[in-house]
Specification:
The protein is mainly α. It has one domain: Orthogonal Bundle (Ribonucleotide Reductase, subunit A), CATH 1.10.620.20. The protein is built from 13 helices and no strands. It has helices spanning 3-14, 18-25, 47-58, 63-77, 79-87, 100-126, 131-144, 154-181, 185-215, 217-230, 249-259, 265-278, 289-309. Helix 4 (63-77) packs antiparallel against helix 8 (154-181), helix 5 runs antiparallel to helix 6 (100-126) and helix 8 packs antiparallel against helix 9. The longest helix is centred in the middle third of the chain and has 31 residues, at 185-215. The radius of gyration is 21 Å and the shape is globular.
Amino acid sequence: MSLKNVRLEVMQFLEKDVDALIEKYLIPIEKIWQPTDFLPNSEGDNFFEEVREIRELSKELPYDFWVVLVGDMITEEALPTYESWLMDVEGIDQVDKENSWGKWVRHWTGEENRHGDVLNKYLYLSGRVNMREIEKTTQYLIADGFDIGTDRDPYKNFIYTSFQELATYISHSRVAKIAKKHGNKQLGKMCQIISGDEMRHHNAYSEFVERIFKVDPNQMMMAFHDMMKRKIAMPAHFLRESGNQISTAFEEFSNTAQRIGVYTSNDYVDILDKLIKRWEIDKITNLNDEAEKARDYLMKLPERMYRLSERIKIPENSFQFKWVEPAIIK
């Protein structure tokens, strides 16, 4: 049997448990928070006063903070790309409404959709950013698409989502702390609750991987090895500003995030280390020779990557993005 057919068989075997996992990890629509819970009430008499408060508090936040918040928002707003990519994974059927994997992706998308929505509205009301340039970057990111090296392989895709959801948890959580430090409690609370969603999603995808390890440990190990060898590409890896066919926007956005401690190269290695421990890679049995070699590679990788991360030097000066005008950031 081909690897593709084995993966499909495993996905069909695990599908029976997906409805229970939806109940475990996702929150019913009637109970979960919505963007308007954190934004001025447009129907209320105090709407303009609440907007003025946002604009005043926003003046206390520095340039690099706005760059990171914009980059995080654009990453969330590119959700159509992520949904279409997951819906194409082997074993996930977007046409068959009874397919539980397809149901998971739709419900996960519904939760994720709120993140970009609330951040977009907040940025618009803040008056501190160039929304038209941000909107163009978002449209470019969706239109350009991306290749994260997973093909239609569910094993690789679930490794990717396990990693990426934890990375976004870290980023949003630290942005929340910076906002609170500068006295912006509402923005801090907003980013904190987004990070909570990301952690729930991380736990869900990590459990998908755990379940696959139990039924197909050799090929799951190889998928983990292959994804980490090629390195995890962030969703916003192909960011570009308007007018730039080849852009350094993602590199500069990453430099900014690292400079203010929102997401660093050490965090990347920490996530890898956490996944190795969570999935108990060192304890998995009945591996063939190839999978054993893959395991050895993975077990040694964090220490090697920590050493490499120590050599990375981040520019001290901020890059000038079109998204944020330095003239209005006092």
